[in-house]
């Protein structure tokens, strides 16, 4: 079974052709260990550092140097739109108040399908449409999207759990 543990920069040059795609819903892209099936039908084990979220377009590799591209799978979501920006902001506030992951788009929010949240949003005057779409929620203020790259763990990460990046010391 192929094991993927090294995340390559999207801008990496000379990495070779993409050998396969790993199509996963967001729920599985949040996991640090998983077994999945590539677009080629091959089983694969994925090991990442706890807290890593695989995003659409990320590139992974393993010992055999094949490059696999992560693809965000379409999944049941709600697209939330409002008559104006203030109403949409109000919906975002109430979703955040419930610690709901949300994707922020140009004039819309996208959340995982949830009947209770759909009813709340409709009550706030939002238009809520069911759609199958890739879900890419915001990482949050503390979710690693803030640009710090000087991570210093308190304890070493076991090699089988470590996600390697070019330039990391062995």
UniProtKB/TrEMBL annotation:
Q: What is this protein called?
A: Urease accessory protein UreE
Query: Could you tell me which residue ranges the UreE urease accessory N-terminal domain spans?
Result: 1-68
Which GO CC annotations does the UniProt entry carry? cytoplasm
Sorted alphabetically, which keywords does the UniProt record give? Answer: Chaperone, Cytoplasm, Nickel
The entry's function note states: Involved in urease metallocenter assembly. Binds nickel. Probably functions as a nickel donor during metallocenter assembly.
Keyword Oxidoreductase annotated: no
InterPro entries (alphabetical): UreE (IPR012406), UreE_C_dom (IPR007864), UreE_N (IPR004029), UreE_N_sf (IPR036118)
The cellular location(s) given in this protein's UniProt record come to:
Cytoplasm
Organism, scientific name: Rugamonas brunnea
Keyword Transport in record: no
Q: Which GO terms describe its molecular function?
A: nickel cation binding; unfolded protein binding
Which coarse location class applies to the principal site listed for this UniProt protein? cytoplasm
Q: Where is this region: Disordered?
A: 138-170
Q: Which Pfam families match?
A: UreE_C, UreE_N
Q: Spell out the family assignment given in the record's similarity comment.
A: Belongs to the UreE family.
